[in-house]
């Protein structure tokens, strides 16, 4: 696996990937990313989020025959193995106490030749000078990953 990207640059090339693919948007919040998948030509996009209010807003805001939204925990996905061509999770893993579970669940629901795309703030930029065991500067982050940390989870 190759890990690249700094900051949020990974968001920009994404619309090139989902054409005719079945995509899971893990922790979709209000559905914006799921809608981008549909516009980019995804065969289907399913957005899941643990917050029922976010899912309700997503259903209201982004209706499209190719998009579904449902309440679900990204660490216990309600899908069979080998279901999706692509799993995306934007700026979520840093909010989860056990980020490795998100990655394991994503791999489980991905097809063998699938693509897992995760974005997260780089610890070296978000909390510079902080030791790994120290709490991140952002109070909403459970953990911030460096490229080495997140690569080790994959």
From TrEMBL:
Listed GO molecular functions?
S-adenosylmethionine-dependent methyltransferase activity
Q: Which domain of life is it from?
A: Bacteria
**Locate the Methyltransferase type domain: which residues?**
24-118
Q: Which Gene3D superfamilies match?
A: Vaccinia Virus protein VP39 (3.40.50.150)
Q: What is this protein called?
A: Methyltransferase type 11 domain-containing protein
């Amino acid at each position: 696996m190759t890990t690249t990207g700094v900051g949020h640059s990974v968001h920009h090339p994404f619309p090139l990937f989902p054409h005719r693919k079945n995509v899971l948007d893990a922790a979709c919040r209000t559905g914006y990313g799921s809608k981008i998948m549909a516009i980019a030509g995804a065969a289907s996009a399913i957005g899941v989020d643990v917050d029922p209010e976010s899912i309700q807003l997503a259903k209201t805001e982004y209706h499209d025959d190719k998009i579904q939204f449902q309440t679900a925990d990204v660490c216990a996905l309600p899908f069979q193995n080998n279901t999706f061509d692509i799993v995306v999770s934007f700026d979520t893993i840093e909010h989860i106490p056990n980020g490795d579970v998100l990655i394991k669940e994503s791999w489980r629901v991905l097809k063998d030749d699938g693509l897992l795309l995760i974005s997260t703030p780089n610890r070296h930029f978000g909390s510079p000078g902080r030791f790994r065991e120290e709490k991140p500067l952002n109070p909403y982050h459970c953990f911030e990953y460096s490229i080495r940390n997140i690569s080790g989870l994959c």
